[in-house]
């Protein structure tokens, strides 16, 4: 869901253009399969029975709601085999197959995963769908499924992703074509399920869907007669901004959320704070936001390192670990078993301290550096440097070499998507055997011309050769931030509300980057939020679940104890997020006309500046032998005191600067 030290970015950047061109020979040409009973006429409700899943699914031994699945064309001229695969579940019997006259008011939802090139079956089977794959490969009913509340459809997009199909030259060229294809798909869906044309649509997704959804929304707004009635968009940990803004810029905030990454070392924090300033990443968020819109940060691949403090020195080609912006597979559900630190571990920690002292001495010696005092090796790829530091000097991440399982996009001990999980090897859940079982394939009317895979290197414009200006994944389209204010204006005109949410344990698209994007967007005639998000919300058991804030039809939710895939890592909180803030319009966190906030601002006591401190304990271990590591209480207390003083000093400096700048 992009450069998580992208497996994909690394692979693309490590190959020459010639080699990439040769790889084009391996781009698949796939097509849907015609199963018995396929109607011969145009799409209509007659097709409902064809797409109905009638055959039993392997290992599904419990009742599930009626569901429909298969491939539907995107209507792209000259590419009849370009289709999107869908799997739809009814909320109640007959709710999805109702006629246009029977229901025009009940909301329905669509879910998109990211990549680009990652299947949304990941979301269905590991996150917010009714079926979940377990650690043993069996299937279980998900008690927190979003389909319990409304009809929901999980869609593999763009063409060629997951069980979607594309001919050899039919892959999308850019995000405008992704949107055009998706609207073509929707125009056929509503012919099969007519009520969906008039019912309010909740368009939801995560990660690189943070690029898909704004482009789809923009395309829908441009139509005089769109095929669906869009009511709300919701994006989780999404790629609204470019690589630097989503990944490198918030490195300091990631450290402050999880200081375990630097072993609670205040000198190391000072180093990264200095680098953040030198790189121009120290953006001040104010409420209301002052000083106009932020200038976009330079893309690492567009400026290789001249004299600008914001220039980079081609960090992607150096990246030796994988963090492709795609949804990763769910981690094992094995509970943690606290253990004491062994004598051997203490000896290793002592040796690590010696190495760390040498590192700090080198880093604090600023002589002989290019670009002033910016680190000559990492440049402004600060998150990369944080990862390297953790894997070399910080327990438990330095305990073993990094392991990657590309087929399920799993990483350990440093899990970029979910920082609290440092197990190695990682313990992913894998839906591949279930989805490639021929019984499943037949039941879902899935293609026989390909096997399902969680993700693949998406060939934009049907080639692996990146065009000039394309991002690390070959996508030539600019990040949505470039038109987000315009989109917000049109959303207001069309009555479409916006929900943006983040998992606090995610370092791939850290929540601070998302909040910067919000504060850099004009909606309802005002730039950003006028008050700082700090209203607490709870799950249905009364546990603190995070922070919510709402103004002028925009909602931001920060979910505690959740990584990049929020419904995976904190399903109970995610269900509340969906029910109360996406499906419904809870006023919790809403700024009222007089300036008061519904639900108060009680989360302020939990915040340290713009940071919601992460979990104190880190899960680590080998396989199912897991433990929890927590630093001594004195270490944590010392860090908390230090960080509070740093935040207080920064607030004073900002206040002084504001007074000085005032007319």
TrEMBL record:
<dbReference type="InterPro" id="IPR029058">
    <property type="entry name" value="AB_hydrolase_fold"/>
</dbReference>
<keyword id="KW-0121">Carboxypeptidase</keyword>
<dbReference type="Pfam" id="PF00450">
    <property type="entry name" value="Peptidase_S10"/>
</dbReference>
<dbReference type="GO" id="GO:0004185">
    <property type="term" value="F:serine-type carboxypeptidase activity"/>
</dbReference>
<keyword id="KW-0732">Signal</keyword>
<keyword id="KW-0378">Hydrolase</keyword>
<feature type="region of interest" description="Disordered">
    <location>
        <begin position="297"/>
        <end position="339"/>
    </location>
</feature>
<dbReference type="InterPro" id="IPR018202">
    <property type="entry name" value="Ser_caboxypep_ser_AS"/>
</dbReference>
<dbReference type="GO" id="GO:0006508">
    <property type="term" value="P:proteolysis"/>
</dbReference>
<protein>
    <recommendedName>
        <fullName>Carboxypeptidase</fullName>
        <ecNumber>3.4.16.-</ecNumber>
    </recommendedName>
</protein>
<keyword id="KW-0325">Glycoprotein</keyword>
<dbReference type="InterPro" id="IPR001563">
    <property type="entry name" value="Peptidase_S10"/>
</dbReference>
<comment type="similarity">
    <text>Belongs to the peptidase S10 family.</text>
</comment>
<feature type="signal peptide">
    <location>
        <begin position="1"/>
        <end position="21"/>
    </location>
</feature>
<keyword id="KW-0645">Protease</keyword>
């Amino acid at each position: 869901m992009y450069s998580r030290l992208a497996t994909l970015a690394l692979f693309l950047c490590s190959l020459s253009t010639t080699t990439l061109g040769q790889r084009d020979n391996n781009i698949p040409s796939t097509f849907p399969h015609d199963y018995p009973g396929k109607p011969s006429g145009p799409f209509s409700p007659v097709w409902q029975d064809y797409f109905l899943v009638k055959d039993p699914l392997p290992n599904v031994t419990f009742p599930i709601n009626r569901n429909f699945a298969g491939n539907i064309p995107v209507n792209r001229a000259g590419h009849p085999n370009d289709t999107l695969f869908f799997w739809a579940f009814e909320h109640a019997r007959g709710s999805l197959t109702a006629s246009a006259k029977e229901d025009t008011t009940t909301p329905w939802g669509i879910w998109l995963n990211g990549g680009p090139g990652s299947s949304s079956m990941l979301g269905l089977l590991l996150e917010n769908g009714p079926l979940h794959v377990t650690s043993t490969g069996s299937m279980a009913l998900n008690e927190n499924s979003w389909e319990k509340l409304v009809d929901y459809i999980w869609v593999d997009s763009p063409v060629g992703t997951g069980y979607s199909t594309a001919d050899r030259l039919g892959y999308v060229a850019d995000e405008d074509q992704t949107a055009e294809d998706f609207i073509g798909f929707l125009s056929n869906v509503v012919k099969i399920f007519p009520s969906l044309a008039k019912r309010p649509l909740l368009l939801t997704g995560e990660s690189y869907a943070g690029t898909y959804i704004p482009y789809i929304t923009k395309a829908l707004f441009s139509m005089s007669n769109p095929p669906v009635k869009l009511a709300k968009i919701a994006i989780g940990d999404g790629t609204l901004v470019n690589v630097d803004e989503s990944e490198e810029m918030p490195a300091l905030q990631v450290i402050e959320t999880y200081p375990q990454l630097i072993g609670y070392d205040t000198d190391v924090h000072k180093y990264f704070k200095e680098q953040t300033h030198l790189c121009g990443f120290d953006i001040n968020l104010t409420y209301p936001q002052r000083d106009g819109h932020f200038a976009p940060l330079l893309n690492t691949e567009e400026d290789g390192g001249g004299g600008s403090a914001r220039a980079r020195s081609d960090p992607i080609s150096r990246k030796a670990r994988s963090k492709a912006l795609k949804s990763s597979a769910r981690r094992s559900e094995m509970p943690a078993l606290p253990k004491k630190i062994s004598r051997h571990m203490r000896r290793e920690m002592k040796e690590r301290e010696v190495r760390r002292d040498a590192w700090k001495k080198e880093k604090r010696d600023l002589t002989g550096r290019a670009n002033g005092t910016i680190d000559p090796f990492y440049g402004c790829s600060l998150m990369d440097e944080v990862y390297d530091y953790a894997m070399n000097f910080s327990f438990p991440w330095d305990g073993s070499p990094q392991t990657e399982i590309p087929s399920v996009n799993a990483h350990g001990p440093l899990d970029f998507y979910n920082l609290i999980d440092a197990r190695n090897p990682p313990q992913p859940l894998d839906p591949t055997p279930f989805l490639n079982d021929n019984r499943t394939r037949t039941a879902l009317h899935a293609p026989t011309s390909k096997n399902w895979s969680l993700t693949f290197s998406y060939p934009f414009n049907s080639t692996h050769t990146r065009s000039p200006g394309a991002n690390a994944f070959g996508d030539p389209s600019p990040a949505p931030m470039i038109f987000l204010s315009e989109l917000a204006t049109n959303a207001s005109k069309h009555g479409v509300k916006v929900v943006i949410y983040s998992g606090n344990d995610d370092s791939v698209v850290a929540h601070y980057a998302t909040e910067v994007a919000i504060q850099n967007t004009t909606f309802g005639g005002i730039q950003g939020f006028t008050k700082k998000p700090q209203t607490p919300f709870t799950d249905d058991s009364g546990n603190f679940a995070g922070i919510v804030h709402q103004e002028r039809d925009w909602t931001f939710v920060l979910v505690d104890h959740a990584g990049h895939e929020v419904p995976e890592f904190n399903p109970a909180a995610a269900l509340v997020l969906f029910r109360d803030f996406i499906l419904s319009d809870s006023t919790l966190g809403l700024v009222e006309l007089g300036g008061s906030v519904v639900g108060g601002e009680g989360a302020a006591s939990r915040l340290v500046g713009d940071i919601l401190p992460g979990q104190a304990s880190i899960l680590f271990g080998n396989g199912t032998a897991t433990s929890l590591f927590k630093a001594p209480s004195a270490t944590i207390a010392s860090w908390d005191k230090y960080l509070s003083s740093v935040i207080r000093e920064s607030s004073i400096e900002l206040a002084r600067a504001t007074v000085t700048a005032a007319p």
